[in-house]
Design a protein that fits this description.
With about 300 residues, the chain is of the alpha/beta class. The chain is about 40% helix and about 25% strand. It has two domains: about 40 residues; about 260 residues, Alpha/Beta hydrolase fold, catalytic domain (Rossmann fold, 3-Layer(aba) Sandwich). Helix 8 links the parallel strand 10 and strand 11.
């Protein structure tokens, strides 16, 4: 009788084993799924704005799908017309690369409002002569902004166009980093007017960019404008689009600003006010010629500052 009871007990134990094994398998699969989730880059274009109004994107933005639409060679460099996707927009740009046996430094050029990608090529040729590649992009809305419309999107938890324009600049940096002809460790951003605003924010968000040069640009002095504002959503939004919000995130990289004393679009005192709020290292150049945008007298300090950034 004891033997029969023992046999029955063993039979029950054997019947339990498949259930135990199934649990082990399920736990193993769950752990694998969690591991895959964290190892594979995902949601690389998602955005957020924290309580202080600081915009951020995923550090790993993923690979860019680049299309070369046209190639022209001559005068010691190659000019490629390219396009690449950035969120809901296809960015077109002009990628100019000087002929070289080694990898070259590179600059993203963000033009001002109403300026197309062809308008970046004056600067691009200067850089090519110095041995630097450049990517001048055609910004969405041709660089124009509409803060009221963007705020209406923001309060509905939709991504503002101005935030997307910052992301476009970051994707342009990614394009350069992917190019085997370019030194991925020596990339800077230059922006004119509105483009300078996006350039400053983009550099603040990506710590591997070497530095930023703003031409005829400034912040919005948001902090003095919101003293009597109590709506936290309004405050967060306007801080998020103001380059001055991000100035403390640029060091140890350098902020350089070049501005004409005759600028009738963005008065020089606005630029100087922004510059005062920036931390070292920084450099401001008052240019006595020209008006708004790049002028010939900016060439020497521009070349000097880029050389220092790429050391």
């Amino acid at each position: 009788m004891k033997q029969r009871k023992s046999a029955k007990k063993n039979t029950k134990e054997i019947k339990k084993e498949p259930g135990i094994n199934l649990k082990i398998v399920m736990i193993g699969l769950s752990l694998m799924l969690v591991l895959v989730y964290f190892l594979i880059p995902h949601s690389s274009d998602q955005w957020s704005v924290n309580k202080d109004g600081v915009l951020s994107y995923h550090e790993n933005r993923g690979k860019v799908d680049i299309k070369v639409l046209k190639t022209e060679s001559g005068n010691g460099d190659t000019l490629e017309t390219i396009s690449f996707p950035s969120k809901d927009y296809v960015v077109e740009g002009l990628l100019r690369i000087p002929s070289s046996m080694k990898k070259v430094p590179a600059v993203v050029i963000l033009p001002g409002a109403a300026v197309n990608k062809e308008g970046t090529q004056g600067l691009a040729k200067i850089f090519a002569n110095k041995g630097y590649a450049s990517l001048g992009i055609e910004q969405r809305n041709l660089g124009g902004v509409d803060p009221r419309y963007d705020y209406s999107l923001f309060k509905d938890d939709k991504e503002p166009v101005e935030h997307k324009m910052v992301f476009d600049a970051l994707r342009a940096v990614d394009v350069l980093r992917q190019d085997t002809r370019i030194d991925a460790n020596k990339i800077a951003i230059i922006g004119e007017s509105n483009g300078g605003r996006f350039a400053i924010i983009a550099v603040a968000l990506d710590p591997d960019i070497k530095g930023v040069i703003g031409i005829s640009t400034s912040g919005y002095d948001t902090e003095s404008q919101i003293i009597n504002v109590r709506d936290e959503t309004v405050i967060r939004f306007y801080r998020s689009i103001d380059p001055e919000t991000y100035l403390d995130k640029i060091p140890p990289r350098k902020l350089v600003m070049l501005h004409s004393v005759n600028d009738s679009i963005i008065p020089i005192d606005l630029a100087e006010n922004t510059f005062k709020k920036a931390e070292e290292p920084k450099q401001f150049y008052r240019i006595i010629t020209g008006n708004h945008g790049f002028s010939e007298d900016m060439s020497v300090p521009l070349e000097k500052e880029l050389e220092l950034m790429f050391q």
